[in-house]
Amino acid sequence: MEKLVFDGRVRPAAAADLDVIAQMVSQLAQHHGDVATVTRDELARDILGPQPWVRVLLAEERGDVVGYAALYPMAKMQFGARGMEMHHLYVAPEARHKGVGKALTLASETLAHALGCRFLTVGTHPRNTVAQGIYRTLGFDPLDPPGPRFQVTIDA
After folding, report:
1. What span, in angstroms and rounded, lies between the C-alpha atoms of 131 and 73?
2. Beta strands in the chain (DSSP E)
3. Alpha-carbon distance 107 to 101, whole Å?
4. 108 closest CA partner among 133, 139, 80, 77
5. Bridge partners of 153?
6. Angle, CA 105 vertex, CA 103 and CA 109 arms, to 5°
7. Can you tell me the distance from the alpha carbon of 117 to that of 110, in angstroms, rounded to the nearest whole number?
8. What is the pTM of this model?
9. C-alpha 141: how far from its chain's center?
10. Dihedrals φ, ψ of 147, to 5°?
11. Are strands 119-122 and 81-91 parallel, antiparallel or unpaired?
C-alpha cells in the first residue's frame, strides 16, 4: 500500500476561515461525544486581532482546509518559562494518515518558539495510544498528571 503524504501548507487562520474552523470544532467536539456551542463571533473574538486569546493554525491542501491546531498560552511562573498548550488538533477524516497532524504539530512548535516559548504541551485521551506514540516519536516527553483540578463558573 502506498503511503500518502501531506502536500500542502500550514498557515495562520484568517477572518475568511471562521466558518470552516467552526465546522471543524464541531466535528472534533462530536468525536469526543460533546456538542460545540461556540459562535462565529466568539471565534472571531478569540482568534483574530493583534493579541489573540487562541492561536489557530490551519493545514491547507489544494485550497481546502483539512485540519487545524488551536493553541493557548501557558506559563511556569516559578521558572520564568512561557509555553503553549496545543488544546485542539483536528484532521479531517479524508486527510488522515498523510502527515497533516505531524505538520500541524511541527508548525505549532515553530509558532511557540517564535513567541518566545520554552515548551509546548498536548494531552490525549488515556486510551489513545496511537496519538501518544506519535507525540513520543515527535520528541514529546510524557508528563505526570497535574493532580486534582477545580473550576468555578464566572457569570458574564
Report:
1. 22
2. 9-12, 55-61, 64-76, 81-91, 119-122
3. 10
4. 139
5. none
6. 115
7. 10
8. 0.92
9. 18
10. 90, -175
11. parallel
